[in-house]
Amino acid sequence: MAQNASMEEFEALLNESFEMDTPDEGSVVKGKVIAIEAGQAIIDVGYKMEGRVELKEFANPGEAPDIHVGDEVEVFLRQVENARGEAVISREMARREEAWDRLEKAYANEERVEGAIFGRVKGGFTVDLGGAVAFLPGSQVDVRPVRDAGPLMGLKQPFQVLKMDRRRGNIVVSRRAILEESRAEQRAEVIANLTEGQAVDGVVKNITEYGAFVDLGGVDGLLHVTDMAWRRVNHPSEILSIGETVKVQVIKINKETHRISLGMKQLQEDPWDLVGAKFPLGSVHKGRVTNITDYGAFVELEPGVEGLVHVSEMSWTKKNVHPGKIVSTSQEVDVMVLEIDGAKRRVSLGLKQTMRNPWEVFAETHPEGTEVEGEVKNITEFGLFIGLDGDIDGMVHLSDLSWDERGEDAIQNYRKGDVVKAVVSEVDVEKERISLSIKAVGGDKFAEAVGGVRRGSVITVNVTAIEDGGIEVEYEGMKSFIRRSDLSRDRAEQRPERFSVGDKVDVRVTNVDNKTRRLGLSIKAREIAEEKEAVEQYGSSDSGASLGDILGAALKGDD
């Protein structure tokens, strides 16, 4: 009887077990750790099933496994029974399924998720998000490029899910988005406490060509190079260094972009307030050349006050020359204040005004008629340029090269570098011109020779050459030519051969040409003049007396 009852109970229990639903493969089930051995946890998942899970699946990246006998855990049932009659289960896959459910909700609600960076891959890092592995691009690690990510490894921190695809198993996260958001909140808080014109302390974080970024306690402001000092600053590193604490003034705050403009010079006295009193017009001061351009040179009169020496005010003599060939950077020079424009903060300076005008000096030391000596600097189609004292040039026009030759011919006798003598004929200081004459050296021989000779004068000349058309004669070193027709009143006597070289002949001056520097001479004119004079004195042409009678009477009277 008892045996029949036990069989019935067993049959009932067997039927009950058959009626119970066995869990589906591919689902997450709950289990209990019943033993830990050989690096594995043995888990009873119910339904008369047990499975084994590697202990490492219970550990977070960089941490030791946290599992004990008796703990209840969720595992993923991959297979109800394997060849050994055990269930094939996975804690890691269960965590992954759980994590995906959680991450999808966070992604939909734009919430932050917690994770830890545990590995480096091409283009970025891998992040464990509590069972799901996500990709963290290198550009999303921080707001600035990170050279060493070591301190971030294994550290639990918040991330923002940028993209996820469960079917493909892809998740992309960002740490930078979290930092920017918190930084924006911090910036907004700091900016709210700042006002334009306020003086604050900051730390120089970065230096660039155009300025420096200063940390004001969670927010950066730009200190432009032009606002660092009243003087010219070529590069911010001249006066600032990274990590240095500086006092700055808030110049402008852009509430929309959260950009802050800072200044240092605004906390100092503006040197331009006293420029007019310290540097009156016409005063001469010593300054330092700070910058050289194509149009001039900037000279610092004192820290914060610079003036421009225009290229036209640099030298009396060097025209069309680059300023760099006259002055050099950092050179100390004397300059004169020519003009001050306080509104535009400009000072016009002159370099040449501190030296005397060389044309004025030359005019004082070399009056007209003074003989000078210099080197031929240039030869042009209209004359020569001669280098003179004071680094200035004088010009000899073609017409002032020679008394005897045409200017076009005379200029062929000169070469660059020749040292010549000349006489100062004119100095125009205003136009900066000096006229010279080479032919005037030694005086005007023609003028000296014919100084007392006038038209109609009778002079004695020496015959120097006999030609078919006449004879060449010389008077006081000046050559002249008497044509055949002027050799005699009598046509029969108009023969050049009746004269010999060396003969002295009395001639009448018919013309004095200062331009061609020639005397017009005639024996015929002298004879006619003598005849006319004899007639007037001893008879008339109407008396019937012949010229021979008149001349005979004249000679007899002389006796």
From TrEMBL:
Function: Binds mRNA; thus facilitating recognition of the initiation point. It is needed to translate mRNA with a short Shine-Dalgarno (SD) purine-rich sequence.
Domain S1 motif: start-end pairs: 26-92, 110-176, 197-265, 282-352, 369-439, 456-524
Gene3D superfamilies per record: Nucleic acid-binding proteins
Xref: InterPro entries: NA-bd_OB-fold, Ribos_protein_bS1-like, Ribosomal_bS1, Ribosomal_protein_S1-like, S1_domain
A Pfam short name: S1
Taxonomic source organism: Pseudooceanicola lipolyticus
GO annotation, cellular component aspect: cytosolic small ribosomal subunit
Name by which UniProt lists this protein: 30S ribosomal protein S1
MF terms (GO), sorted A to Z: mRNA binding; structural constituent of ribosome
GO biological process, one term: translation
Protein keywords: Repeat, Ribonucleoprotein, Ribosomal protein, RNA-binding
Domain of life: Bacteria
Matches recorded under CDD domains: S1_RPS1_repeat_ec1_hs1, S1_RPS1_repeat_ec2_hs2, S1_RPS1_repeat_ec3
Family statement drawn from the similarity comment of this UniProt entry: Belongs to the bacterial ribosomal protein bS1 family.
